């Protein structure tokens, strides 16, 4: 890679890190996990950019890598287990009634692909076709994930207000 291309790649990483973190946080719901996801994504993007010296759209490549890395991480068995010292009698509820907290909590309850679709559609402001292309699925699948995900979010928010 030439010095100019390397500098361009460095500028991209510095310029997109915060935006990638925000999307990762919405996907994960945990700032530490989001930071790890961004780090992993940026390593993959840098290695990919160096390997394929000419990527047409580095931003789209980074976004797709972020979402794919998130979904792949959710498939791992150890991610599904949670260790507790003592089992709670009742599940803990957040006392903060802030809408953002409720939405992030509701997002965390969705399946990884539904969550990815909603984050890309409503946070990243991508169209249905762009989201479908990025996730490698049909537009009808994006629409159904969107509808089901929004219905689940509405139900979770309604339940929180009860």
Automatic annotation (TrEMBL):
Determine if NAD is one of this entry's keywords: no
Matches recorded under InterPro entries: RNA_pol_sigma-70-like (IPR039425), RNA_pol_sigma-70_dom (IPR014284), RNA_pol_sigma-E_actinobac (IPR014325), RNA_pol_sigma70_r2 (IPR007627), RNA_pol_sigma70_r4_t2 (IPR013249), RNA_pol_sigma_r2 (IPR013325), RNA_pol_sigma_r3/r4-like (IPR013324), WH-like_DNA-bd_sf (IPR036388)
Q: Does the keyword Nucleotide-binding apply?
A: no
UniProt domain RNA polymerase sigma-70 region: residue ranges: 17-79
Note the coiled coil stretches, chain numbering: none
Recall the GO molecular function terms of this protein's record: DNA binding; sigma factor activity
Q: Where is the RNA polymerase sigma factor 70 region 4 type domain?
A: 102-153
In its UniProt entry, the species of origin is given as: Streptomyces chartreusis
- Please provide the record's keywords in A-Z order: DNA-binding, Sigma factor, Transcription, Transcription regulation
Return the protein name: SigE family RNA polymerase sigma factor
User: What biological process terms from GO does the record include?
Assistant: DNA-templated transcription initiation
What SUPFAM superfamilies does the record point to? Answer: Sigma2 domain of RNA polymerase sigma factors, Sigma3 and sigma4 domains of RNA polymerase sigma factors
Q: Which family does it belong to?
A: Belongs to the sigma-70 factor family. ECF subfamily.
Domain of life, per lineage: Bacteria
């Amino acid at each position: 890679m030439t010095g100019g291309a390397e500098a361009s790649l460095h500028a991209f990483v510095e310029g997109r890190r915060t935006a990638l973190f925000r999307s990762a946080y919405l996907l994960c719901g945990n700032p530490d996990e989001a930071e790890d996801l961004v780090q992993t994504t940026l390593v993959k993007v840098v290695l990919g950019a160096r390997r394929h010296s000419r990527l047409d759209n580095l931003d789209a490549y980074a976004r797709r890598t972020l979402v794919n890395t998130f979904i792949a991480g959710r498939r791992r068995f150890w991610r599904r287990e949670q260790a507790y010292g003592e089992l709670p009698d009742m599940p803990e509820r957040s006392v903060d009634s802030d809408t953002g907290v409720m939405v992030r909590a509701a997002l965390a309850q969705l399946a990884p692909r539904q969550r990815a679709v909603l984050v890309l559609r409503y946070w990243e402001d991508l169209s249905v076709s762009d989201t479908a292309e990025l996730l490698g699925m049909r537009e009808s699948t994006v629409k159904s994930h969107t509808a089901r995900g929004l219905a689940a979010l509405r139900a979770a928010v309604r339940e929180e207000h009860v």
